[in-house]
Structures are given as structure tokens and as C-alpha cells.
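Quick illustration for those who missed Monday's session on complexes.
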Amino acid sequence: MKKEMICIRCPKGCRMNVEYENEKIIRVTGNGCKKGEAYAFDEIVKPMRIVTSTVRVVGGRLPVVPVKTSIPVRRSIIFPVMQEIYKASVKAPIKEGQVLIKNPADCGADVVATLGMEKTGTKDD
Ligand code: SF4
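Prediction with iron/sulfur cluster bound:
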């Protein structure tokens, strides 16, 4: 099989052509350095992504807080992680970096707040 991809390991963004069979990389062309081959391997064999979303907030100044996974998770498990994020709700106040969901869908990462949030009526209300 063949796949075209852009390496994002540095700002150069090489456009690469990757030939592979099952999970074995046969040839990578267009890469400016060895990191491109490693990137192609990761994308074909074990693609990982940081998941970003929002979680509902009870008693906060806004109805939702932005969140992300603490580390990249397997792309194949993103949907179950999103389902757990969608079901969750947390009480304000929330601190930036606070773990809001521990290890959703057994993904190996936690879901953390990327923004702090006060309770309603605690600042200049
Ligand atoms: S292949 Fe190397 S030079 Fe090209 S984008 Fe990736 S890291 Fe940068």
C-alpha cells in the first residue's frame, strides 16, 4: 500500500510517500532526514493523538471548560475517550492543569483542564 503524508516533526514539513505492507514500512521517499522515517513508522504502526475537547461545568462562570489528554493516546481509542469526556461534568472551581477524568477508556492518559475556572459569583459578579 502507499500513503502520502506530511512529516510534522519540524517546521520544514516534508511531503513524503510511504510504501508499506501490513505494519511493515518498505520505503519512505521525500523525507529530509531520518526523523521522517520514524514519523512514518509511528503513523502507520501506532498513530497517537492528543485529544482536545470540553467538559461540562457545574457552578462555573462558563458552561464548559477546555480539556486535553495529558499525553497522546492511540488513535484507535479516541472515540471511547470522547464518549467519557462527553458524559463527564465537573464542579467549579477548576485549576488549570487539574485532572478532571482519570484514565478514560483505560487509554493511559488523564484528561486535564487547559484553563482555570472560578465559581459563579466569586470575582466581580
Ligand atoms: S523529514 Fe526531517 S526535515 Fe523533513 S519535516 Fe520531518 S523532521 Fe523535518
